[in-house]
Structures are given as structure tokens and as C-alpha cells.
Amino acid sequence: MTLNESIHYHKNKLYVDSVSVTEIVQSVGTPVYIYSLRRALNNLERIKTAFTALDTHIHYSAKANANLTILRTLIEDGVGVDAVSGGEIFRALKAGVAPQNIVFAGVGKSESEIQFALEKGVGWFNVENVRELDFINYYAEDMGLSGIKIALRLNPDVTANTHPYIATGHGGAKFGLTATVIANVLKQQSQWINLDFRGLHIHIGSQLGDTLATQQAIQKALDLLAPYPNMKTLNIGGGMPAQYDSQAQLPSFEMFAHDIMPMLRDYTVLLEPGRSIIADAGILVGQVLYTKNQAAQHIAITDASMTELIRPALYQAKHEIVPVAENHSKTQVTQVVGPVCETADVLGRDIPLATLNEGDLVVALTAGAYGAVMSSNYNARPKPAEVVVAANGESWHVARRRETWEDLVAKEI
Ligand code: LLP
After folding, report:
1. Which fold has domain 105-273?
2. CA-CA distances (angstroms) from residue 69 to 37, 85, 109, 337?
3. Which protein residues are within 6 Å of ligand 1, measured from CB?
């Protein structure tokens, strides 16, 4: 099972650090996300330690989980933020990040987002389009700004070992600029007088199964930078994997660092980890509403669904499903589904579980990343509550209250 020191059983009951999941559910209800801040901070610490031999700056990728409490906790621990929209910049600033510690990425930044980012003084623009350079330069001029730090995003045309929907570094992907375009831009860099071309950015995919394609991508970036001895920054994006399946052989932080650090000795390195910090710090808890045996299947229908956690429906992602009350009796293959009117609304397919009954609590593990942030109001389902267990492991609070039906209609005229 993909449990860890923070998400664990104690006397057959599931705990997040020292807090019983049942206790939280009794007070907050289901479905509910619960995050261990201690686990997130431990993951961050391990990444910092693994890369300590380099001049490394970590920019937590807010898209993985942008809850303000999560952001605030990580920012207070010294990270910057990788933001991919004006909204994420807004959130990161609300959470207290210094604007110069934000990197602003994204394949389609609107002019108003560019203006907002310049006004706020974000540290870096990761640029994916030549026209974007024109816009940033133009608005910087307009605001009397210069020396705007730019990292051009290279599409290195490598094949990442991951799910095709989250691979971003192959030639056919919409992301980045080709090596040829980057070489040309660098030759003409003086034409964007307000921009400071400091380095390159790569992000070849998420949940990477090995480090090979990352090494290839870094090499391509270094080749492009070779003629420019002043450009000494390489942002290598995110991608370090989380353990969704305890049997999977995946590179650890330490293996990642070991394999790529020798290539980057002379460089300042920016990292944008998201999943690897927050995925295994979070769980989604649901309650069994009904069970039924149908078409030779045992089905448990829970109040947690694809509107809370879309990853299984969207990527055939497998999240381990475990009961809150551990039960060692005989297991049966169970389909754990939600109430949403979609055949794809299956949280866990063919999960061996001791017989579930109405009212039982079940948990999808490793749900801290790309869970709540990708939730939706489909079927007019209010978004779930999010609870954090503090770094002391004992106190907890609701970091985002459950939406109400009134919230669902509040923005409509
Ligand atoms: N930097 C860039 C430019 C990215 O595009 C991403 C993720 C990251 C950093 C963070 O990557 P991480 O460390 O989390 O692998 N919704 C999908 C994942 C989409 C990832 C998008 N980009 C999922 O649920 O698997």
C-alpha cells in the first residue's frame, strides 16, 4: 500500500499524522480532502537536500495544489512559485510570496496577464512564443521597466516515459519553442531592449518514469546555451514522480539529482516540482452510500466522485483505495464508483477490498496533487471541503470550506 509516515494506520484506523480521519469526517463530513503539511514539508526538504550541491531555487508548481494554506506553508519554508496564469499569480501573492520569486509560465499568456505580471514585478517569464517577447517588451516599455528576466522554453523533442496526456517535450506537443527558433531569437536578442535573456526552460512531462529523457533535454538546452557564456540559468521544470503504486519502480529525488547534477555544475538551476511535494501528502475521503451486485460485479457507490478527483476518469490513473477502518477479513473485487451520471465516474476499478457496507469510509490515496485543483461543479455538485493537518501533526483546520448550493448559483445573474 502507498501509505507513508504521515498517512498510516494506527490500531486499524487511518490517521493523518496524529489525527484520526474519522474525527475529521465527523466534524466536516464527506467528501473531504485531507492534507498533511508535515509530509509536504518533508518532501520539500528531501528535494532541497538532494540538490544541495547545486545553486538551486525551488519554485513550487501551484497548479498541483493551489490551496492558500498549502502555498503559504511552502512559501514560508522558502520556496518560490511557478504560476501558469494571472489567477495563480494572484493566489501566490495572496499567500505571501515575494513577486520576484514567481516564475510565470504558460503557452498562452494573455496581454492582460502579461501586464498584471509586469505590474506586480514577477521574477521570471518562461516564454513559449516569439510574439510573447514582443508583448512583454512592449508593456515593459510602457511601464518604464527594463531587465525583465526571460527563460525561453525549449521543446527538446524528446519522448518522456509517462502517460501521453502529461508528456510535453515531444516535437508534436504544443509546448515550447524549437531549438532552431531559440537559436535565432538568441542571435537577435538585442532587438527586445527591455528583456534580459538569462536562460532556458524545459519541462518534458509529469510523473516521469526515468531520467533519461530529462538528461537528453538538458543536453539539448546546454548545447543552445554554449555560445552565450552569460546565460547561466536553466529551469528544468517539474516531473519528479509520486508513488501511486508501491510496486512501481520510480526514480527517487536522490536518483534524479544524481543523474542530472553532473551536467549542471556551472549553472543556477530552477526546479518546478508540484506533484512530488504534495501528491502523497493528500487523501480524498468518501463515504459509501450504497452497494450493489450487478453484472457479476460488486459495486460500492460513494459520495466521492470524478468531480472531486478526475484523474482516474481522465488519465486512467490508479489511486489506491483503502478503508478508513482497516479490516482483515476476506477481500472481494470491488468497483468503487461515484454518483455522477458518467460511466467514466469510477474512482477505483477492480479493487480488492473487505466487504464495504453503507456508511463505511473509503479513501483514495496519493490524491494531494491535481485533485482538488481539477475538481468541478458538474452535476451541480458543490466542491468538497479541504482540511489541513498542521506540521505539528496534531492540530487541524478547514482550509477551504465545503461549497454550498448557494455558492453554485452565486455568480449567475
Ligand atoms: N512546470 C511546468 C511547466 C509544468 O507544465 C508542470 C506540470 C510542472 C512544472 C509541475 O510538474 P510536476 O512536478 O507536478 O510533475 N493534471 C495532470 C498533470 C499535469 C501536469 C502539467 N504540468 C495529472 O493529474 O497527472
Report:
1. TIM Barrel (3.20.20)
2. 9, 19, 26, 29
3. 61, 63-64, 82, 105, 166, 203, 206-207, 237-240, 272-276, 311, 315, 370
